Predict the structure.
Amino acid sequence: MKLADYKSHFAAHRGGCSHLPENSIAAFEAAAKAGIGYIEMDVMMTEDWKVVVHHDDTLERMTGHNAGMGEVTFEKLSELKLTHEGELTDQKVPTLKEVLQKLQPYGSKVLLEIKPPAHRDDLSGQQLALNVYKIVRDTDMLDRCIFMSVDIYLIEEFKVAFPNITACYPALGNADEDLNQAIDKAFNVFGCPRQKYSSQINKRAHSAGLETFVFTLETLADSETYLSDKVDIVMPKHITPLII
């Protein structure tokens, strides 16, 4: 199997580039330019409710700044640079709006992982989801975004509020039971960790009209098994050889 022929089925995990900072505009644009089908990213809010793209609750690993994302204003965040392999880069933590505007000219779809901060209440998670929706709508990217979250109640409420969005239901417990929930609640995509995946689950999801998404694979080569099984979207940790 020539994996380069399956670029449209790959998701670039946080941009997917081992040679660029994760969740950076440089990484996202490199993946999009290479024709990767899906760009995966994490969204959260600053202290002053600005929606930005970043994975960790804290900033230390990616910027060296010892603070939580929910503890800094966007003005302060804008002063920080992202690091990569211990070295400062010219990249900053981008806003979701900036990223979507940058990706607009390309054909890639976007997997948006909504990450409400653990220390905030349920209302803040709902506000984050609403803010994300408005940004996606206003950048004319609704038809190219898949919304997802490991906060199952949040993503269920989000799908009820906006039934026309494309949303991914995650298998966090028993995969068969979670798939039943995804079908009953009219989700569009079933997200399955590789540890919970089976060919039977994939076939059941497809029979019910759902696409399937398997994550997060240890190596690019691991993708062959799932692609051969007709999984719609596969996400290894890095897909650098498909990008550079």
Q: What stands out?
A: The chain has a mean pLDDT of 95. The chain is about 35% helix and 20% strand. Residues 122-138 form the longest helix (17 residues).
